[in-house]
Design goal:
The chain is α+β, with helices and mostly antiparallel strands and 174 residues long. The protein has 2 domains: 45 residues, no CATH class; 116 residues, Rieske Iron-sulfur Protein (3-layer Sandwich), CATH 2.102.10. The protein has 2 helices and 9 strands, in the order ααβββββββββ. It is elongated, with a radius of gyration of 28 Å. It starts with a helix and ends with a strand. It binds FE2/S2 (inorganic) cluster. FE2/S2 (inorganic) cluster binds next to loops.
Amino acid sequence: MSEEKERQKPRISRRQFLTYTLAGTAGFLGSTMLYPMVRFAVDPMLKKGAASEFVDVAAVDEITTTPKSFQVNVKVVDGWYKPEEGQTLTAWVMKQDNGEILALSPICKHLGCTVTWEGSPEHSNEFFCFCHNGRYTKEGINVPGTPPNAPLDEYETKIENGRLLLGPIKKRGV
Ligand code: FES
């Protein structure tokens, strides 16, 4: 092939080279940023097994109609929030009037502080959140006019051989 023909071959321009380089770099950076976001969004759906574990908490005889706090080790806690392995949370456990056991999450539905049974002397027989004066009834229902806009979440419960076992959190509506 002659030198003249070689020079006439179509060549990539500087502008095209820059366009391709920038597009390639942007694509690479975009995909590396997108992957963690997609992974974060679908991760809980991929881990079905973690939600089926129950933890032995107490003898059923220990549970009264007054909410009592028990420490529990749970994996799936509140929507996208999952504590590290081994981290403990408090469950407020009580016997209801119908004899059924209710175990409530202590995580306030406003901004995630911890609620306490009868935490405020002005509001007896209620759960109270010190952060912004959030209040809940004994059944964990948010009191209208206070910051929380949803009831406290509830643990799944089951009784085996006279022992109370707590399972994953189940939401109770918004
Ligand atoms: S975090 Fe509980 S009232 Fe705001």
